[in-house]
Amino acid sequence: MTMQHQPVETGSGPTLLAEEPTRDSWPGVGIVIGGRSPSRMAWKRVRQDKVTMTALVITLLFIVIALLAPVLTWLTGWGPITPDNKAINPDTGNQPYGSLGGISLQHLLGVEPGTGFDLFARVVYGLRTSLFVGFASAVVSTVVGVVAGLAAGYFGGWADSLLSRIMDVMLAFPQLLFIIALTPVIQNALQTDSHGGTDENLRLLVLVLNIAVFAWAYTARLVRGQVLSLREREFVDAARIMSAGRRHILFRQLLPNLWAPILISFALAVPQNITTEAALSYLGVGVIPPNPDWGALLSDASQFFLQDPMYLFVPGVLLLILVLALNLLGDGVRDALDPRSHRG
Prior knowledge:
The structure is a single chain. By secondary structure, the chain is mainly alpha-helical. The chain has two domains: 1-35, no CATH class; 119-337, MetI-like fold (Orthogonal Bundle). The protein is 62% helix and 6% strand.
C-alpha cells in the first residue's frame, strides 16, 4: 500500500498530510485512503455541533432577509419611510388602530406610533444597516490589526515597542464615549458640497471608520502574540536560509498560519460592532433619520412602551437573537479551529 505525502506548514511547523487519496495495490481491494485538510476537519466539527449549526442557519437567514429587503417590502407594499395615515388614530395621539401595535395582514409587525411607518419595512431595512456597519467595520479593523500585528511581531525592536504602545493606548480608551464625541466632529470636518453622497451615507462611513479605529488593537495584539511564536519556528528559519525576502516570509510563510486566529477575531468582532452601532443610534449619534436602524427604533419605542409594547418588543428581540446567534457562531468557529477546546 502506497500513499503520497507533501509537507504542509501549520502553526506548529511543517507536518505531513496526504495530498490525494490512493487505492490499495492489492487485486480486488478498493480502499481509498486520504488525509483531511484543517479546513475540512474544522467544518466537520462545526457540522457536529448543533448549537453552532443553529447559529449559522439563523445568521444566514438574517443575511438573506437583509439582502432581499427591497423584494420583501415590495411584496408587502410598504417602504421604510412610506406612512400609512389610515393605520393610526389621530384621536389617541396617532396610536395604531387595533391590538398589538396594529399587526394585520397589511402590516405584518404593525406600524410605528406617530408616523404610521410599516414596522416590518423599518425592521428589514434596519437589519441591512446593522449588518453593513458590523461587517464593514470588522473587515477594516481586522485588516489594520493583521498588518500592525505582523509588523510588530516579526520586526521586533523599536517597531514592536512603538506599535505595542499604540495598541495599549487604543485599548485604554473608553470606546463608546470617544465615538460619541468624535462622530459629529468627523462628519462636520468631512461635510462638503461635493462629498459625492448624502448625509446619511456619510454618517455610515464615519460610523464604520470610528468603530474600526477603536477595534483594530484587539486583533493586532492577538496576531502579534502568534507571530512572536511562529517566527522562531523551523520553517521560517528554512525560508531565511533560502534567501527568502521579508515579504515572502510575512505573507507566504507567517500569514497562512494565522488564518485561524484571524477568523476567530473577525467572527467575534461582528456582533460587538453591531451592538456598538445600535447603542450609538439609541443615543442619537448613529444613523441619521429617516434611515431605519434598530438602535434608533429602540430609542423611539421607549417613548411609547406603555401604549404600544410591541413597538419595543419586536426590534429588541430581533437584535437579541441576531447578536446571540453571531456570538454563538463565533464561539463555535473558535472551538472548531482549536482542537484542544471542547464545549462543556
